[in-house]
Amino acid sequence: MPELPEVEVCRRGLAPELVGALIEGVDIRAPKLRHEIPPALRELLPGCRVLAVRRRGKYLLVDCRRDGADGVEGCLIIHLGMTGNLRLVPPGTPPARHDHVDLLLGDCLLRYSDPRRFGVVLWQPGPPAVAESHPLLASQGVEPLSDTFTVDWLFAAISKRGGPIKPVLMDSHLVVGIGNIYASESLFRAGISPLRAANRISRARYSVLVPAIRETLSDAIAAGGSSIRDYVHSDGGSGWFQIQAGVYDRAGQPCLRCGGVVRQVRQAGRSTFYCPGCQH
DNA sequence: CACGACTCCTGCTGGC
DNA sequence: TGCCAGCAGGAGTCGT
């Protein structure tokens, strides 16, 4: 389940292989994921070179340009949804059931696979700066690993939020990249109950939460970073790397910090895990 | 505006 | 052993 760290690791793994590469062909085998995959990609992408591989929230942005009279310029917007992944495989590797899109890069194939098809593959024409004006990206919130994500900012932004803190942290229009797993883990690290109303948490406690979020995400990136090469080049295996979860998916098991029992509740339709002993 | 419910989809798990 | 209900979840959209 890709959250910000997984997408960032994916980006770091792909960038060295993709930047400068010439796109020779495109194979689209699924008509739609969450949205229709633009059929025009078949004409637009061949002949383009990859200029950069960026990340905005959980979206990957692949800037492309084809020089010449018909100069094509645009950005491939990719979201991995719940179960998506991007891998580099040898050309000619037969596609499996959920391998929906291939980009032929000459000496390798960039393959997008997504069993549940919650992902996104879209195209935003124009120079790289324009990509972020795409409706899906324009409404994205603050990057939690950027300098903008400060205690003051979060404390102010959250002042109107009377609901429980955990779903608020997962609101990508506020802060991007914090999904269900890292929301639970960050709150555990900070010792804050996921049930507590966001605007009933003191500034002092946000000064603990902000670095807890940063560290949770950074640690996960570091954990994944050690296996980037294997990940990007692997053509098998299910998965995303794991962080050592303190509470996530540990309902009924002893809390690693206090020995209490980890509890599971539902918030906004999602499972939340926390330790009632450590988190208040 | 804030917030929860619903929705998309498929694969895995657990209960009988 | 097999079947099926239920769950998993990112995030847009809609209704309250």
Descriptive tags:
28% helix, 4-stranded antiparallel β-sheet, 280 residues, N-terminal domain of MutM-like DNA repair proteins, DNA-binding, 2 domains, alpha+beta, Helicase, Ruva Protein, domain 3, 9 helices, 10 strands
Description:
- By secondary structure, the protein is an alpha+beta fold.
- The chain folds into 2 domains: 4-138, MutM-like, N-terminal (N-terminal domain of MutM-like DNA repair proteins, Alpha-Beta Barrel); 151-274, Helicase, Ruva Protein, domain 3.
- The chain contains 9 helices and 10 strands.
- The chain has helices spanning 4-18, 41-44, 128-131, 135-138, 151-157, 165-169, 180-190, 203-225, 228-233, and strands at residues 25-28, 49-56, 59-66, 72-79, 85-89, 99-104, 109-113, 120-125, 263-267, 270-274.
- α1 (4-18) crosses α8 (203-225) and α7 packs across α8 (203-225).
- The chain binds a DNA duplex (16 and 16 nucleotides) through loops.
* Radius of gyration over all CA atoms, rounded: 20 Å
Task: Please give the CATH architecture of the largest domain.
Answer: Alpha-Beta Barrel
Highest CATH level, the class of the largest domain: Alpha Beta
User: Ranges with pLDDT <50 over ≥5 residues?
Assistant: 235-239
Provide a brief overview of the structure.
It contains 9 helices and 10 strands.
